Amino acid sequence: MTYARIAGTGGYLPERVVTNKDLEAMVDTTDEWIRERSGIKRRHIAADGETTSDMAVVAARRAIEAAGITSNDIDLIILATTTPDKVFPSTACIVQRRLGIKTIPAFDVQAACSGFIYAFDIANRFIKTDGARNVLIIGSETYSRILDWTDRATCVLFGDGAGAVVLQADEEAGVISTHIHSDGEFEELLHVPAGISSGYATVQREAAYIQMKGHEVFRKAVGTLGKIARETLADANIDKEEIDWLVPHQANLRIITAAAKKLGLPMERVIVTVDEHANTSSASIPLALDVAVRDGRIKRGDLLLFEAFGAGFTWGSALLRF
Ligand code: COA
Question: What spacing in Å lies between the alpha carbon of 83 and ligand 1's midpoint?
Answer without folding.
Answer: 23
